[in-house]
Automatic annotation (TrEMBL):
Belongs to the diacylglycerol/lipid kinase family. Keywords: ATP-binding, Kinase, Lipid biosynthesis, Lipid metabolism, Magnesium, Metal-binding, Nucleotide-binding, Phospholipid biosynthesis, Phospholipid metabolism, Transferase. It comes from Actinokineospora diospyrosa. This is Diacylglycerol kinase (ATP). Residues 1-132 form the DAGKc domain.
Amino acid sequence: MPAALAVHPGSGHGAAARALDAVVARIRPVVDELTVVSADTVEESRALMVQAKDAGLDLLVVLGGDGSVHQGVQFCAEHGVDLAIVPAGTGNDLARALGLPGDPVPAADAVAKALVNGTRRRIDLGKLDGGPYFGSVLCAGFDSAVNERVNRMRWPHGRRRYDLAIVAELAALKHQRLVVETEGERLELDATMVAIGNTGYYGGGIPVCPGADPADGWLDVTVVGKASRLDLLRILPTLRTGDHVRHPFVRTLRARRVELGADNGWVSYADGERLGPLPVVVDCVPGALTVLA
């Protein structure tokens, strides 16, 4: 099996670069050929992946964080190449949903074992109408505003940056009119945030769509209505357990296509990557990607 390993050295504040030799040592013996490609930008990464495909490629192993995996998802879904994930970022949400270890070396061992045993599965992907695929969660509203603020911050690093951004966005909290339309339901409400999950996790392990299954042909939708600052403070601890869906101002839906309407200034993020402002239309694409897991 010809394989390429795409590494983004800066992922996880250098964790990907530090793990590279150990990961290569585990993958190389179980494939016919392994080409290692290293990229610092999205454009460079995509170009190197296409070159590897043109040379003959059956498997792409991505060593990096959620942004790196997001690019791997695009390439593999578009070119019919299998994907393996060796997480080395701060979120690692798609890897978590697939049951992979959170550290790169144990994850590489799991990938090598899956290669030897021929263990593969097909999973669904979300896809924006006219836009990219995503593997985990698309969000807009309060949580995407936190992402926007985090991306503007240079200090501190890690989870503390998110904690400070959450506090700042709570202080600036504003509700916006949102329309959520599926095949069988239409909601129009003042909302705090919305999340569309192909898998359950975002933000480094928060099960925002706790019932999402990436192999059932459905998207799970979580809508938080007009929640006050106090409501959000109360709901935050339950996000880690998935119990937030029990709150009276939280609605959950399941759909094959979801349209988020209203030009309300919200920006959408998926797999932790900035996509652009609402409105957006999202489809579930069943069995769009083959993964080793």
